[in-house]
Amino acid sequence: MDNFSYKNTTQIHFGKGQISKLKDEIPADARVLITYGGGSIKKNGVFEQVQAALAGIAHFEFGGIEPNPHYETLIKAVDLIKQEKINYILAVGGGSVIDGSKFIAAAALYPSDPWEIIQTYGAKVTSALPLGCVLTLAATGSEMNKGAVITKAETKDKLFFFSDHVQPRFSILDPETTYSLPAKQTGNGVVDSFVHVVEQYVTYPVNAKVQDRFAEGLLLNLLEDGPKALENPTDYDVRANLMWTATLALNGLIATGVPADWATHMIGQEITGLYGLDHGQTLAVVQPAVWLYKKEQKKAKLLQYAERVWGLREGDEDSRVMAAIENTRQFFETMGIPTRLSAYGLDASIIDPVVAKLEEHGHVNLGEHGDITAADVKEILKLAL
Amino acid sequence: MDNFSYKNTTQIHFGKGQISKLKDEIPADARVLITYGGGSIKKNGVFEQVQAALAGIAHFEFGGIEPNPHYETLIKAVDLIKQEKINYILAVGGGSVIDGSKFIAAAALYPSDPWEIIQTYGAKVTSALPLGCVLTLAATGSEMNKGAVITKAETKDKLFFFSDHVQPRFSILDPETTYSLPAKQTGNGVVDSFVHVVEQYVTYPVNAKVQDRFAEGLLLNLLEDGPKALENPTDYDVRANLMWTATLALNGLIATGVPADWATHMIGQEITGLYGLDHGQTLAVVQPAVWLYKKEQKKAKLLQYAERVWGLREGDEDSRVMAAIENTRQFFETMGIPTRLSAYGLDASIIDPVVAKLEEHGHVNLGEHGDITAADVKEILKLAL
């Protein structure tokens, strides 16, 4: 096991009716900006619960945060914050709303051009408004970590930043808020959580048993309950298990003391930035291709994954590895998320632009060994056609 | 899954050489009390590392904190704290030193008789000195939680308290500090961790898949690496896996949203208080007896445990349950910890005194259903003879 430092300060309130805890978490004299996305929270009762819990606390609204939240949209919230002297951000939504709200929270106090926050990966952030979350989608884990991904629409740049200052003070996770999700969002969320786990697990062995077994447990939960959520979207236990699984998939715990890959995310981000595919869709396409390309280097962990997650114990090593990769692909398809670029109307013509964007962003030498070059990304994308 | 709230603010620094991080965690102008136990830290190099890291920071020593730390000992540290204007506690040791230091940290600022802290289970604690830890034994989980167990030697009362104020600010977990442990302490630590997990897992099903699979993962780690630590005490990976497993066994994470038993701990505490058995020894004795007595009520989770932890899939339900209980007992014995009261020279004459102490402490109606009465405890102890 490698050395590590770990701390996670977010207060979680999990379960039915927990939105009422907002009144305990947000100071009575706060001036709150409620941030949200396309407005589904105003149709499914979540917004009403939030308003009821905030009774007596001054609050304002900023809606319209899009998937892969745009810098151009978020920056408008900063004006409202200054105008209304807002001092607390409450994100109500999924990962995009929370990520966007992290940027808003930091940008509101940033002394110079806020795009620097992204350009410096958050290193120059020294303060942020306090942020709380009401999560409505099990997917990104943003509700319990310090990362965010922001897109500059003008230049099609999708980039991340990290800062302790934007770690949510609290997050409320009520599985019932996810009952009304479209199937595609449920599917994308399960794929996103799954790929978060494997990016931190299918690398090379360092004899980190807690981390491996926690990762395997999270993957088994997704395999079992992902399809059930599509079949019966209002099964509380299924939604609860997916929600807590998604949070733990990316709250730093399974990352402790182990190498991480993240090549799939880096490549996928550029595909979303350039061609607008959903985040989960890009992961479903790229992940199996990365594994096919790197199956020799990842063999030890792919075999462990094959055995412990898929129960594959028969046949030679190569056939077990290939079966595990194929099973993974089939699982993503079962979740309604196609795993080939061609299924999204994309072909080999995207390869050069995607690689050019990676190089522009300095995202080269990817993977747990830092040995996936631009030439390798081209080969990986060929395997994803 | 039941509703829950969860937060854990302790900063962990894990791995070789991490004791040097003390200088980053403790303010340069602090006046630090280093608390420790019987003095092994002065023989195995840990104390030297601590002193080196604290160079330039004023520090004092308070040694001699015994296993099952005594109120009578701890209270002496409070005088030293007042006399030397100490404002930071650094516990260097295992669970007893950390538990005792939590009490010291709270007692130092407590405005009336500090025994009230215990009598009120910590409810009246409103402040404490900041506490940091250098852990030297994988066992209790105290390094990342807000609980402590204290014994009043005069009256043989072993009792616990909880307070957010005594949650360690940071804990340094260097597996190398555990290389020199006596085999009995390694064995007790593994048994303690194991029983922490099953007290939160072998109850009744609430469809909490994250918690169940994390619990099962921790148990498998202990089964695999516990015996290896006895065979080769200086295997870094083995010690590292045991250390991180023990911390996660009782940091609140696997307790989220599930029922908890704790009957074994409550009964075991009285046996330690009255007869001086090690904490791990009492657990090894009582746990199998609780399961034998409650095997019908716990059947669903015992069957899950039998299958997922022990691989028991053949035979009828009763035989699988009995095999799982017997395997558990054998595992404790393999760790060098006998599982019968008779092995410690105790007989049925202890039953009435133990039950009387439980009643005196108001610890009746135990277990996840609150249905284990004094009469039931007598039957359980008969099964442990």
Automatic annotation (TrEMBL), chains A, B:
According to its record, what are the GO cellular component terms? cytosol
Q: Name one Pfam family in it.
A: Fe-ADH
Alphabetized GO MF terms: alcohol dehydrogenase (NADP+) activity; butanol dehydrogenase (NAD+) activity; metal ion binding; methylglyoxal reductase (NADPH) (acetol producing) activity
What are the Fe-containing alcohol dehydrogenase-like C-terminal domain coordinates in residue numbering? 189-384
**In terms of domain of life, where is this protein from?**
Bacteria
Which Enzyme Commission number(s) are listed?
Answer: 1.1.-.-
Species source reads: Tolumonas osonensis
Q: What class of enzyme is it?
A: oxidoreductase
Q: Please report the stretch or stretches of sequence annotated as the Alcohol dehydrogenase iron-type/glycerol dehydrogenase GldA domain.
A: 10-175
Q: Which family does it belong to?
A: Belongs to the iron-containing alcohol dehydrogenase family.
Q: Which cofactor does it need?
A: Fe cation
PANTHER family hit by this protein:
ALCOHOL DEHYDROGENASE YQHD
Which named protein is this? NADP-dependent alcohol dehydrogenase
Its keywords, alphabetically, are: Oxidoreductase
